Amino acid sequence: xxxxxxxxxxxxxxxxxxxxxxxxxxxxxxxxxxxxxxxxxxxxxxxxxxxxxxxxxxxxxxxxxxxxxxxxxxxxxxxxxxxxxxxxxxxxxxxxxxxxxxxxxxxxxxxxxxxxxxxxxxxxxxxxxxxxxxxxxxxxxxxxxxxxxxxxxxxxxxxxxxxxxxxxxxxxxxxxxxxxxxxxxxxxxxxxxxxxxxxxxxxxxxxxxxxxxxxxxxxxxxxxxxxxxxxxxxxxxxxxx
Length: 241
Prior knowledge:
UreD, UreF and UreG form a complex that acts as a GTP-hydrolysis-dependent molecular chaperone, activating the urease apoprotein by helping to assemble the nickel containing metallocenter of UreC. The UreE protein probably delivers the nickel. Belongs to the UreF family. It is found in: Cytoplasm. Keywords: Chaperone, Cytoplasm, Nickel insertion. There is one protein chain. By secondary structure, this protein is an all-alpha fold. The protein has one domain (about 40-230): Urease accessory protein UreF (Orthogonal Bundle), CATH 1.10.4190. It contains 11 helices and no strands. The protein has helices spanning about 5-15, 15-25, 40-45, 50-80, 85-100, 105-125, 130-140, 145-155, 160-185, 190-210, 220-230. The longest helix is centred in the N-terminal third of the chain and has 32 residues, at about 50-80. It is globular and about 45 Å long.
């Protein structure tokens, strides 16, 4: 095989990259900037003040939650989409809704999912998967969680499974970093150092998530959830609830 043919084959295999970059960019309007993803009251409770505190949060909560709950469910949803098993997709959507019992976390997920779904419909109008899920959402049979819409998006774009898991995990950490700049008043440089520290462990969290069977999936963090639930009645806050 000539070098030109090899280069063309490589480009063909990576045809999903430009679209993935578009839908993963902060410019993609999902409304994530308006939510703290539960971090606001937790940061106040734990008196977070620095990028090091954010790194500790990644290690003790955000990373394990990705490995034990979010990434496994992303995989289950995508497998169900591939199998055209929409009953299971909706069942998984309902399970995700139940796991996110604190309104701050649940509503942020639904808000992001709704925004992403709306724009995906405009970008890829002919997608039967998007239309099927949109119809279920419109009739109240689907909750519209961001994780489910992300799985739809990755399958629509033919993103390899590993790249989809990595991308979703990166976006999750980046959302916390974006919120921390306002909450902790850390510099953009400190925020990037914290993100880099989280990304060093991201491959391990992704690898661990692949070993989690559905009956064992879950992440129990009652103190974090309780702090998140207090957000709605907090005296002052930077993010919506």
